[in-house]
Every structure is written in structure tokens, then in C-alpha cells.
Amino acid sequence: MSEEHFKHILSHSKEYGFVFQSSEIYDGLAAVYDYGQNGVALKNNIREYWWKSMVQLHENIVGIDAAIFMHPKTWKASGHVDGFNDPMIDNKDSKKRYRADVLIEEHIEKYVQKIEKEVAKGKKRFGEDFDEEQFRTTNPNVQRNAKKVKEINSKLREAMDDGDLDDLKELIEELGIADPISGSKNWTDVRQFNLMYSTQMSATDGENEIYLRPETAQGIFVNYLNVQKTGRMKLPFGIAQTGKAFRNEIVARQFIMRMKEFEQMEMQFFVQPGSEMEWFKYWKEERMKWHKNLGIEESKYRYHDHVKLAHYANAAVDIEFQFPFGFKEVEGIHSRTDFDLSQHQEFSGKKLQYFDPEKNQNYVPYVVETSIGLDRMFLVLMSNSLQHEDLGDGQSRTLLRLPAALAPFQCAILPLTKKDGLAEMGLKIFNELKLDFNCYYEDKDSIGKRYRRQDAIGTPICITVDHDSLDNDDVTIRFRDSMEQKRVKISELSTIIAREVSMKELLRKLN
Ligand code: ATP
Q: Domains, the chain, ranges and CATH?
């Protein structure tokens, strides 16, 4: 995967109606994106796969939909007002703003790239005999660059963990990092920058400034008791939610990976204190299973265990995916102890406890959370599915090998021509199948062109209606991945499509 592949994802997303830049006619709004006609369908399907796997497949998980606006004390209690910061730095000449830690990470990446280039060169030179592990541990150029990566990384981690902004600035100067756009090294000091957006709510109760939520989790914590009591929930139980979150990210060229307005899918699982590590392990495995169930190559996923933990957590792990720009977090699983509920208890003065009938005791439950970005998951699927396939004879095709159940359309109905009653027959099939599946209908252009367009938006099955169909009540179905075609009876279509593309089959494998 490469920079080239990333560019292809961007252009394909736009060209085929998946993702547009927000307010593009006004030259766009940085790090804000809109989903187009195909993008919204894919996004809805990912959300549905997540929601059903949580709420429908677990008898002890329920869903809610909390408001984006919350009482401002929520964010004082959660620690976001005082601690939800990133270190920022401005370039005095270009007037551009950057995240200080990201500038350093990008500098590190240059050394990593040098190492990979050297390894690729070695592979080419030694061919079959190439021992990559030995090469990495003995080649002097690789060794020198690896040492540099380790040194800078350790300085960066130390400065970030200590919150030492002067050390970050010093490191940027020591490494000679220049503004990636202007090349200038004329930097301001590093300052903390709070990521929450605030706005005004008419002041009836004296609390004028409110925030746009930077995560959905707090809407779950403040509703813990409402749900537990009205749903008569017994520990362990979970509350799931999907919805928009807002962060004033300082970003550069990351497409939907890091947006200022994005969507999260979070589930807070409330457990008995003392059992949290067992549940942490359970959810760590369950969540990886959810990802791998989509048929994505195993080697593209990995865990990243947090060594240094946030003050409220006693275990944390990220699920990372190999994006075109390297392994990056898609989802976090965190054991958050009783931190959030205890904080809300203290700030609100309301008890947020659980009466455990077995222990005959009241206590604040512990929480294990799973938190995934819907937009990042969208990018996982685009990165993994967008392929260019050589068909021989100078022919090629671009296809989106999306998991069939998540594709924007499950099937396309394509009469060979509008004439001779074929369109009528195609529409009749469409009107029947649309009750169960999201179907596409098109009767213009050559069939080859139409197949290519369906490949490019990921439609797993095409159904072609031709003149024989009128006599025999059968049609040709063509499969996206294999391009295999076969003749089937119209009456069989529904069963065949359901077997190949339904969400039910995807969920069954998780059950
Ligand atoms: P990162 O370190 O990449 O900024 P994070 O650790 O701040 O992420 P969390 O606060 O744990 O992220 O949020 C949970 C999930 O929400 C992340 O795993 C990611 O998928 C998603 N997410 C977080 N910030 C953004 C963003 N700005 N744009 C898109 N998705 C995001």
C-alpha cells in the first residue's frame, strides 16, 4: 500500500459518489466531509452491522440515542475541560498551525521509509535467498536509521507523557523540522490547545457556554441509572450508542481519518468491580472477531497494547489497521474502572450505583468500553476493497471488493435493452427484490460498461435480463469478484441473493 493507493481512494470516493468535501463550491471546509449517495449507503450498512452485532445479538446490551448538547458540568466531570488538549505549534512565516507531536512523528516516518527502501533494495538484490530478519538486524544503514527512530521516539514519548511543551519545541528545533509547506523553521512556542468546540445557549440558568460533545460515551454514563432502572438491567450489561462527535483537530491531509465532525460507535459495558480484566479480555477478542468477520486479510490488523495508561484506566488496547499510510488506530478498548460514574456522582451529587442482590451491597460499577470511529471503519473498507485488476489482453477493471452485505447496493438489475418488453420485465424484478434488498436499476449503455460501473461501486451481483428471459423466465447473474456468470430462474433470485449478500449471514458467523 502506498501514497499512490491513498490518492486513488480519494479520487475514487469522489468520482463514484462516496465522499465529497464539505461545501466544495465554496472551496471546502478543512477536515469536514459529506457522504454522497453511495457513501451514505455504505456508512449506514457499517453502522447497522455494528448496531445489530451489539444490540440484537446480545440479550444484555441495549441502545440509546443521547443528545449532542449536554450540561456543561458533564465535561468538567469527565476531565475534558481541563485535560482534552493537543500540543500545537504555529509557523510564523506560513501562519499554518500543526500538532507538535505529529510534526515529529512525520519526521520519524522519513527514517522508517528509508529503512523500508533499503529492505526493498536488499530483497531485489538477493532474490530468493533474502533473509529479511537477518538483513534488518545487520545492515548498517538499516541499523543507523532504526537507532535514530528509537531515539526520537523515546524523546517524543517522554515529552508527551510529562506534558513538557518546551521539550517538544526543543526536539523540533534539534531535528531541524521545517514547515512541510513553506520550508520555514520559524516556529512559535508549543501551546496546549483544547479540542472541544463551544457555543452559546441562551442563558436561563447562568450556564451560558456549552460544548459540542467530543465523544458519545458521556451521554451513556449520565444515562446509566435511567437505563439500568427502566430496563431492569442486571450486571453485567451494556449500553450502545452511535452518533456525531466534534473535535477541533489540527489536521493535515488525512481525509476522513481525522475529521472535525465525525461519528462514533461506542458501547459501555458495566461490570462488577474485580471482573473488569476478564471482560476486557472478552471484548478485546470479540471486537477483533467483528473486524475479521468482514473477510479482511488477517495480517492487516493488529493490536497495540497501551503501556502507559491514562490515569483512570487499568487496561487499554487499540485495534489497528494497515492503512495506505501505515498501521493506525480504528478502535479502542478501554477498561475505565469506576472513574466516569464516580466523577458524575461527585459533580452531580446524585448516586450512580448498583444494588447487587447477590452481594447485598451497593457499589459503583466498573466499565469496559469499546469505541470505534464509523468514518475510520469506512476508510478501512475503502482501503481494503479498492482494487485494480488486470484481466489480460490489455484489459483491466477497477473494483470495490466490499463485503457483500455492506455494499451500497446488493444487486443491480440490468435489462440488455429498454425495448421489446425487457425494461418492463427488469422493473418487475426490481419491484419484487427491492422489498428485501437495496437494488440498482439501469437500462442504458452497453452491458460491459454497466458491469464496470457496478464493479466500481462494489455491487456484488448483477442480474441481466435478455430476450431469452421473456421465453424462459430466467436471467443471467454475474458475480462481482469472480465475474462468473450463470443462468438462473427468476423465482430463485431472492434465495440466491439472500445467501450471498444478506446481513443475516454475516451476523450468523458472529453468533
Ligand atoms: P487518535 O489517537 O487517532 O486521535 P483517539 O485515541 O483520540 O484517536 P478515541 O478518543 O479513543 O480516539 O476515540 C475512539 C475512536 O473514534 C477512535 O478509535 C477513532 O476511530 C475515532 N476517532 C477519534 N477521533 C477522530 C477524528 N477526529 N476523526 C475520525 N474518527 C475519529
A: 1-66+215-398 (3.30.930.10), 85-193 (3.30.40.230), 403-508 (3.40.50.800)
Q: What number does the ligand 1 atom closest to the CA of 334 have?
A: 11
How far does residue 489's CA lie from ligand 1's centre (Å)?
48
Q: Which residue has the cell 490518492?
A: 7
**What one-character-per-residue DSSP string does 249-262 give?**
----S-GGGS-SEE
Question: If we measure between CA atoms, which residue out of 189, 106, 121, 199 comes closest to residue 153?
Answer: 106
Name the grid cell of 228. Answer: 439500568
Task: List, in order, residues 6 or more apart from 184 with CB less than 8 Å away.
Answer: 91, 92, 93, 94, 178
Ligand 1 near 371 CB (within 6 A): yes
pLDDT at 1 over 60: no
pLDDT score of 207 = 61
The minimum-distance atom of ligand 1 relative to the CA of 371 is 14
SS3 216: coil
State the Cα–Cα distance between residues 269 and 334, nearest whole angstrom. Answer: 10
C-alpha to C-alpha distance for 59 and 87, rounded to whole angstroms: 43
Atom of ligand 1 nearest to the CA of 214: 10
pLDDT tens digits for 249-278?
A: 987 678 999 999 999 999 999 999 999 999
Residue of minimum CA distance from atom 16 in ligand 1 = 373
> Measured in angstroms, how far is the CA atom of residue 276 from the centroid of ligand 1?
23
Cβ atoms of 386 and 407 within 8 Å: the answer is no
Distance CA 401, CA 456 (A): 9
From 425, 399, 403, select the one nearest 414 (Cα to Cα): 425
Closest CA to 119 of 108, 134, 135: 135
Look up cell 510529562; give the residue: 162
Q: What is the dihedral of CA 196, 202, 204, 209, to 10 degrees?
A: 20
3-state SS assignment for residue 351 = coil
Model confidence pLDDT, tens digit, residues 123-170: 888 888 888 889 999 999 999 999 999 999 999 988 988 888 999 999
In angstroms, the CA 148 to CA 271 distance is 44
Strands 209-211 and 198-200: antiparallel
Q: Give CA–CA dist 171/148, Å, rounded.
A: 13
CA pair distance 282, 288, nearest whole angstrom: 10
